[in-house]
Design the sequence.
């Protein structure tokens, strides 16, 4: 046998066995893995199995490439896939020391906290845990303990806004304003109270001439505070820009009114930066666009771009001081732990992630490319009447789909699902509201990694154009 024949046979054999291995993996996945947010029938039909990624491109087990404009599906991979520098930093830390509980000091945790706080004037303490939900749970526990220690247990209620999402655990879900996400998971934790959303495109107020929409929407929070009794409300939690609830930007004047109201009634302002934090909106943090000063900021996802599971609850010194042991109250300090808040690889990855963002100027790039993306989406809006609104900040944008631009009624879920599916078939991954609201899952979202180039943005736009064309002509 010639050597070339031998090589050919070997290659055929290897490919064959490779296919068998992949088929088996898919089979095992269907049999054993229970997928997030996915109905069984969809999983049974077969899900893509992603196997490698670099930059914004991700590849599945069949070798198909996708441009990922969803940052790992859920706004995570801010610095993109395949960052060896982050893996190396984690490797170096893990081979030196992998873990010790955060009740003791750690080198990467200390270094990252210091660097992070440089970006957050007015805040001074970092509390580590592993997920966005958990970071919010810590904030809720702080509020409840402050109420117990300093207000006789009375100032314990936590307000949240319709359409915002704060996580999957029962307390975080109790603070979530999304009907379908909550459905069938009650009863919920007492003491969480909803107030109306601020989505100006789906306006819900008749405005008097002297009032802006933003001020009117923020006053809806004050109305709820007054109804509940200001001395019973300890905190309000808000996303700076609502993410999963539909990429909702606060209208002009909204945040100033929210901040004023919180100060007036001594209510702590918790800012959920789990999605917006670490550059996503073209600033280190979403709240920094709006000239406000939160008391507690939570973050996860982009903190280590998905290379490690890490989240932070960051507070002012005043909040920290309220939760210290005092004479006669030995239980008076924050007695909370998150085991994996002691994983040393998390802050090591977060530190490398932050250094990449700084060195490569990704915050500026995010702003510039975000503007390019929005400008392109405006053109698509002019072309397809089904696009009622496009909006966003930085590389965090949404498209609201309506049956017609005047009455703004949401399209059926199937249309939103259909456009996202067409994009996927054309090699583009985007996000969408996914069984979040009753009859209003009509928003597509895009959040490519902050490294996106002009060419990436143009490719996203041209695939979206094609997907809209196919969907609206029913091809
Ligand atoms: C704004 C916001 N907060 C909190 C969370 C919960 O984060 P995790 O899924 O890491 O618990 C999410 C998740 O998508 C989120 O979008």
Sequence:
């Amino acid at each position: 046998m010639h050597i070339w024949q031998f090589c050919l046979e070997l290659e055929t054999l290897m490919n064959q066995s490779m296919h068998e291995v992949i088929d088996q993996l898919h089979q095992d996945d269907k049999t054993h893995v229970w997928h997030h947010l996915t109905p069984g029938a969809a999983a049974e039909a077969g899900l893509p199995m992603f196997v490698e990624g670099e930059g914004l491109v991700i590849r599945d087990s069949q070798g198909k490439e996708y441009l990922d404009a969803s940052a790992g599906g859920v706004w995570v991979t801010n610095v993109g896939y395949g960052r060896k520098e982050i893996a190396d930093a984690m490797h170096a830390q893990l081979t030196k020391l992998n873990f010790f509980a955060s009740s003791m000091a750690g080198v990467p945790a200390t270094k990252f906290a210091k660097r992070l706080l440089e970006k957050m004037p007015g805040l001074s303490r970092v509390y580590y845990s592993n997920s966005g939900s958990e970071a919010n749970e810590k904030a809720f526990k702080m509020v409840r303990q402050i109420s117990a220690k300093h207000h006789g247990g009375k100032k314990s209620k936590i307000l949240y806004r319709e359409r915002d999402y704060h996580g999957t655990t029962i307390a975080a879900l109790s603070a979530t304003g999304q009907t379908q996400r909550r459905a069938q998971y009650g009863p919920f934790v007492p003491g969480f109270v909803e107030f109306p959303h601020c989505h100006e495109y789906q306006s819900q107020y008749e405005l008097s001439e002297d009032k802006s929409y933003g001020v009117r929407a923020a006053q809806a929070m004050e109305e709820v505070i007054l109804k509940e009794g200001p001395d019973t409300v300890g905190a309000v939690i808000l996303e700076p820009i609502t993410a999963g609830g539909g990429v909702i930007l606060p209208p002009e004047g909204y945040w100033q009114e929210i901040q004023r109201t919180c100060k007036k009634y001594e209510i702590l302002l918790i800012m959920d930066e789990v999605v917006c934090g670490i550059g996503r909106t073209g600033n280190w943090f979403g709240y920094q666009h709006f000239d406000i000063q939160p008391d507690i900021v939570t973050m996860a996802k982009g903190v280590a771009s998905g290379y490690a599971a890490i989240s932070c609850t960051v507070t002012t010194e005043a909040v920290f001081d309220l939760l210290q042991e005092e004479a006669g109250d030995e239980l008076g300090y924050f007695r909370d732990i998150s085991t994996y808040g002691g994983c040393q690889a998390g802050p090591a990855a977060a530190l490398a992630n932050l250094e990449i963002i700084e060195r490569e100027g990704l915050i500026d790039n995010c702003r510039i490319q975000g503007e390019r993306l929005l400008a392109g989406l405006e053109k698509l809006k002019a072309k397809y009447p089904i696009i009622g609104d496009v909006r966003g900040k930085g590389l965090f944008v949404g498209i609201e789909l309506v049956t017609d631009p005047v009455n703004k009624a949401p399209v059926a879920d199937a249309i939103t699902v259909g456009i996202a599916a067409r994009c996927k078939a054309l090699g583009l991954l985007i996000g969408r509201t996914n069984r979040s609201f009753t009859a209003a899952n009509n928003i597509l979202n895009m959040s490519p990694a902050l490294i996106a180039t002009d060419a990436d943005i143009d490719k996203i736009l041209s695939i979206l154009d094609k997907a809209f064309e196919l969907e609206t002509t029913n091809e």
In short: The pocket of pyridoxal-5'-phosphate is lined by residues 74, 131-133, 136, 165-168, 239, 243-244, 272, 274-275, 300 (CB under 6 Å). The chain has 15 helices and 15 strands. The longest strand covers residues 233-238.
